[in-house]
Task: structure prediction
Amino acid sequence: MRTSFSSLPSLPMEARSMIIFLYGQDTYRSRQKLNEIIEYYKKIHKNGLSLKFFSDENLNFQEFKDETKSVSMFAGKKLIILRNVIKNREFKEKFLAESKRFINSDDIILFFEEGEIKKNDSLLQIFKKSGRFQEFELLGGQKLKGWIKKEFEKYPVKIGPTIPERLISFVGNDLWRLSNEIQKLASYKKNRTIEIKDVDLLIKPKIETDIFKTIDAIASKNKKQALSLIHKHLEKGDSPLYLLSMINFQFRNLLIIKDLIERKKTLNALFRETRLHPYVVKKSYSQAQKFKIEDLKKIYQKIFQVDLAIKTGRITPKTALDLFIAEI
Result:
């Protein structure tokens, strides 16, 4: 990670104008930094009306320019966030033509780019000279292991010395998925020590996509297909407890997203507020439309009951999965 500053969230938001540029392939940490800045800004501007968003989906240079010209009714600077706009050639050309004006703006302009950017990119060069910038490179080696250990410290669990290496061998350096898997392991072994056998039991590569298919089948009330997909996993040797944990995780996401949808939140707001991987948000957003929130609550409660029955030995995990699909 390369940066021209040390502690972005503690920026003196009222001190002077600035341009901030966050970019890199590690979208998990870059989004975390974006959220930190937004939360810090909201503490200062509690009404949130001086916070503006533009993205590649609806970007219009003139609207952005007009926003920088307009005077806020509220005290303090506006925070204007531009998401994934650097590939928008028209916007880029117009911004470069008037870059001096924006650098001297009374507002805070934050560019948030998901992905790698060429070192000689014209916008990047401007930001390096006159703005604050931070690149989030993919973690590897000891840095990745250190990140995993630190992530586990958020939960009331301990880990064996070889857990980070095992997780990396299963998941790689995808921090979005690693974060989800760490949360899952911590929930499974709360107040205990996570061992290699727990990782082997709960973490399997490339299973999430198939779980989305199972949820789609449940949403379509196609129990036969849902059972068929579950049985295919079991035949491959996938743990029924792991399958249930993934179903539980996804229905929890659906419940959260459905609640936000009913509160009229936009897709961009879902990205910010759930802090889930964009792929998971988009898939869940589509699936949530197929359920009523009351049905999601009932299904989530049913998962809890099934999990309890398994843990108390009243039913085998495989039978529990079959009954869960049959009864929802």
About this structure: The beta strands are 2-3, 18-24, 51-55, 79-83, 108-114, 132-135, 158-159, 193-194. The mean pLDDT is 82. The chain is about 60% helix and 10% strand. The two ends are 47 Å apart (CA to CA).
